[in-house]
Amino acid sequence: MKKMDIPFVNLKRQFQEEEPQLVDIFRSVGRSGIYVLGEAVTEFEKAAAEYCDSKYALGVGNGTDALSMIMFSLGIGRGDEVITAPNSYISSASSISNIVAKPVFADINEDLNIDPACVEGKITNKTKAIMAVHLTGKPAQMHELSVIAEKYNLYLIEDAAQAFGAKYHGKSVGSLGTAGSFSLHPLKNLNVLGDGGLITTNNEALYKKLKKLRNHGLKDRDVSEFWGWNSRLDTLQAEIAHHRLKKIETTTQKFRLIAAKYRANLENLVDTPFDREFEYCVYHNFVIRTAYRNELALHLRERGIETKVHYPIQLHLQPSAAALGYKRGDFPVAEKISEEMLSLPIYPELLDDEVNYIIGSVKDFFSSKA
User: Fold this and answer.
1) 290: pLDDT strictly greater than 90
2) Which of 159, 228, 311, 360 is 20 to 30 A from 143 via CA?
């Protein structure tokens, strides 16, 4: 088998495939003289809201701001607690800390998403919200979480940074709770050429407050109703996002086809992710699990295949979380999985020969173990 060089992501290839269209977008925005907000942002927001089964969508500076702004607008702040998963990216917890609230972690299920049974045991009189993370593009158990949120009168916030296009019982993520947050970072399934974020909600009052909050609390050019943020989606990024939104179904299908091929060829060798009958997963990451994780990663690297671990240090064990008082062993499921998980390359620009090479390389590793 001839050695290949396969990076974990290949944004250069994505750009090269779209270069003529992206250059046209840049030229159009440049000639318009409108670079912040404007009609292009509004049109993208309308299209995104429709796609996400939501009444409203709002473009913001990034996914972290989106989460913080949602919570801030709901009145969550100092002394309040928000429950989330310990195995997500830093921003799930930092977005809570940024508004001077306290992240409280609850362990996960084998599917990498927060365990509703563990959530209920973490609720106190300070709890104001549950943040459900749809990790790797797989929807969290929103029905169970909705029941808990309603029972205790809590907000249910969706961290859908990795899950644009995912569905749960036929409904789009981002439309299943109080509000949803998406990242448009270059590594995401719907991405732009820089930072960007999106908020979705069906709550008109929340939408109107967020619309002012992202722009210094301004109700018009001259009057600020409250001290706000500066977190607006640039016009150029909105045009790029809108362009890519128009072909998101094709993009998602490519992710899902690669995932299906991995699963069909590797499920007898490693634990592989899958869709339950009520899920439509978008496979932002394809995370396998094996007791030989480190050896397999080394073997693949020697074959020219880059892999990642999402994430090697759980949130409760990060130095930034020291003041929260957690320790190793507090979340046994999340901690065990973090020692076994490995993410394989998965992106629409991945060629069939490259996918086959990755599969063959994994099979070769386990053949040597037989």
Assistant:
1) yes
2) 311
CATH assignment of the domain containing 345: 3.90.1150.10
- Tens digits of residue pLDDT in 66-96: 999 999 999 999 999 999 999 999 999 999 9
- Of 245, 270, 289, the last residue of a domain is 245
Q: Do the beta carbons of residue 193 and residue 186 sit within 8 Å?
A: yes
Nearest alpha carbon to residue 4 among 367, 350, 310, 363: 350
197, 61 Cβ separation under 8 angstroms: yes
Residues 343 and 345: their CA atoms lie apart, in Å, by: 7
User: Is the pTM here over 0.90, yes or no?
Assistant: yes
Residue 81 and residue 27 in one domain: yes
Could you tell me what percentage of the chain is helix, strand and coil, using 3-state DSSP and rounding each to the nearest 5?
40, 15, 40
Q: Are residues 45 and 143 in the same domain?
A: yes
Start-to-end CA span in the chain (Å)? 20
Which residue, 182, 214, 245, sits at the end of a domain? 245
Look at strands 286-289 and 341-344 and give their pairing: antiparallel
- Look at the chain and report how many structural domains it folds into: 2
